[in-house]
């Protein structure tokens, strides 16, 4: 079993490292071509669709992956659910745009997503296109990892960054609205690729096996139970960008985004290990789960700690020599991001334990606590301490989530 785990982790790790390296190169070229403020604008524009997907999908994507693996839900049926979800997200974004244009009181949610920053139709076009591709891409990545189809996972996560990098190198900066036009072309490429990929899977899948209404009902019930749990991804990947942009500004967001790019190189190693374990956790019966988890979690914590220390010592020279002297202030964000990274990834196996035992609501409650800390602490800290206060809130949230996940998983495994 251990050999099988390591074999899967090795393949996912290679795929994620290559994709992470391409994104790192992309951030270097982008920063040198469009500057600090341009880097911040790009980070904001690609983050908003992910945040909107997590908040408005009601946990459906995670539920589909669970039922495909555990309950033999057909892939074709899942993709039909996904198309409906995409239409719903586009409709929600359209309503948000209307609230901004009409000045309705409920425009506060649009303000939270920093949508008022977009005053040009090109920028709105980019956001709408990325909202179409975001749920599709997220579902496909989760599906390929769950069924351990590493070849398709590799193509999915490396081809789009590679095309984006080639496009960026060739892109002229002398034209008007060069950044906005570049992002529009990139968004079109991502939509065409992800939707075509999903379409090919649909036509190749079995579309005739029946799936009862009662079973479909279970999909939505699991989705709702685990909805808040999906927000934890937003806390770590999206809400930070929105808070920094709202309280500090786009230029500071550019520095923060490049610091995240450095940390992401190391975090992808941790995430790859977790991704390789998803299928194994879901396949285990309850009497086997305790032994499997005990043999894995302690080793992972030590490995993650060593990885974090290595990242701390190499981050400064990477920023100085790769991005240039104008991005050197990003070094100050590295320790906070690494602390948050360590506590977040170290408790991921506990999430798999809870989900495997059909307890997604527990991760939901934990994530809600973390989200409240990030929002509350980020707003208070951003007002009084600026960027420093926001970073403190991220670290505190990661530590509390870590403790709660460990405690709940331990209590659950003691029953077996």
Structural notes for this entry:
- This protein is mostly helical and 416 residues long.
- The protein has one domain.
- This is Lipopolysaccharide biosynthesis protein.
- It is found in: Cell membrane.
- Keywords: Cell membrane, Membrane, Transmembrane, Transmembrane helix.
Can you give the mean pLDDT?
77
Percent of residues in helices comes to over 70%
Biggest sheet character: none
User: How would you sum up the global shape?
Assistant: globular
Structural class: mainly alpha
Number of helices: 15
Q: State the end-to-end distance.
A: 21 Å
Instruction: Determine Rg (CA atoms, Å).
Output: 21 Å
* Total separate domains: 1
Given as residue ranges, the uncertain stretches (5+ residues, pLDDT < 50) are 210-214
Strand residues, percent: under 5%
User: What is the H/E string?
Assistant: HHHHHHHHHHHHHHH
Oligomer, anyone? single chain
Number of strands: 0
């Amino acid at each position: 079993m251990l050999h099988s785990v390591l074999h899967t982790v090795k393949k996912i790790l290679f795929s994620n490292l290559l994709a992470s390296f391409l994104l790192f190169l992309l951030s270097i070229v982008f920063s040198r071509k469009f500057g600090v403020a341009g880097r911040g604008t790009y980070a904001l524009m690609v983050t908003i669709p992910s945040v909107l997907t997590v908040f408005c999908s009601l946990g459906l994507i995670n539920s589909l992956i669970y039922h495909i693996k555990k309950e033999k839900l057909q892939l074709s049926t899942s993709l039909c659910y996904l198309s409906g979800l995409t239409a719903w997200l586009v409709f929600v974004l359209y309503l948000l745009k209307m609230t901004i244009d009409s000045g309705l009181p409920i425009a506060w949610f649009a303000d939270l997503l920093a949508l008022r920053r977009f005053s040009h139709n090109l920028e709105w076009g980019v956001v709408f296109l990325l909202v179409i591709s975001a749920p599709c891409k997220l579902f496909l990545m989760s599906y390929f990892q769950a069924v351990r189809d590493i070849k398709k996972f590799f193509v999915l996560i490396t081809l789009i960054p590679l095309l984006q990098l080639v496009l960026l190198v060739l892109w002229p900066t002398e034209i008007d609205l060069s950044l906005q036009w570049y992002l529009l072309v990139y968004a079109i490429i991502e939509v065409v690729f992800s939707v075509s990929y999903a379409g090919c899977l649909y036509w190749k899948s079995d579309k005739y096996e029946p799936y009862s209404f009662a079973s479909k009902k279970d999909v939505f019930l699991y989705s709702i139970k685990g909805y808040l749990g999906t927000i934890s991804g937003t806390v770590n990947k999206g809400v930070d960008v929105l808070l920094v942009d709202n309280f500090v500004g786009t230029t500071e967001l550019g520095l923060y985004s490049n610091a995240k790019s450095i940390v992401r190189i190391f975090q992808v190693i941790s995430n790859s290990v977790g991704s390789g374990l998803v299928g194994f956790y879901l396949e285990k019966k309850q009497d086997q789960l305790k032994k499997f988890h005990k043999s894995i979690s302690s080793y992972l914590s030590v490995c993650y700690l060593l990885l974090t220390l290595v990242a701390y010592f190499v981050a400064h020279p990477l920023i100085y020599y790769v991005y240039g002297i104008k991005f050197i202030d990003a070094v100050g964000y590295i320790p906070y991001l690494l602390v948050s990274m360590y506590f977040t990834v170290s408790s991921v196996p506990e999430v798999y334990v809870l989900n495997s035992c059909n307890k997604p609501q527990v991760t939901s409650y934990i994530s809600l606590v973390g989200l409240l800390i990030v929002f509350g602490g980020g707003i208070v800290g951003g007002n009084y301490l600026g960027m420093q206060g926001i970073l403190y809130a991220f670290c505190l949230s990661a530590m509390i989530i870590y403790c709660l996940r460990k405690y709940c998983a331990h209590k659950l495994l003691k029953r077996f």
